[in-house]
Amino acid sequence: MAKKDPIPAKLFNILACPVCKADLKYNNSKTGLVCTKCQQEYPIKDGIPILLPPDLK
């Protein structure tokens, strides 16, 4: 059975990478987001995407 998306579709559709502004996609386990352009990874904690650029982590 497919794992339920942790972020509501309405919110997911407006998210963008804070580094290069490209679209994001879920990683394989749906525990984080990956930029489709620069491949930067962002975790999802309790259903909230943590979109901090690498220099602020």
Give the key terms.
N-terminal domain of TfIIb; 1 helix; 4 strands; mainly beta; 57 residues
List the helices and strands and how they pair.
Layout: H1 9-12, E1 24-26, E2 32-35, E3 41-45, E4 48-49
Antiparallel strand pairs: 1-2, 2-3, 3-4
What is this structure, in a nutshell?
With 57 residues, the chain is mostly beta strands. 7% of the residues lie in helices and 25% in strands.
Task: Give a written overview of the molecule.
The structure is a single chain. By secondary structure, this protein is mostly beta strands. The protein contains 1 helix and 4 strands, in the order αββββ. 9% of the residues are buried.
The whole-angstrom Rg is 11 Å
CATH class: Mainly Beta
**Residue windows where pLDDT falls under 50 for at least 5 positions:** none
Portion of residues within helices? under 10%
Strand neighbour order, sheet with most strands: 1-2-3-4
Measure the end-to-end span.
33 Å
Shape: globular
- How many β-strand runs? 4
Strand content: 15-25%
CATH architecture: Single Sheet
Number of domains: 1
- The SSE order reads HEEEE
The CATH topology name reads N-terminal domain of TfIIb
| Class based on secondary structure composition and strand pairing | mainly beta
- Given the structure, what is the number of helices? 1
The largest β sheet comes out as: 4 strands, antiparallel
User: What kind of assembly state do the chains in view correspond to?
Assistant: single chain
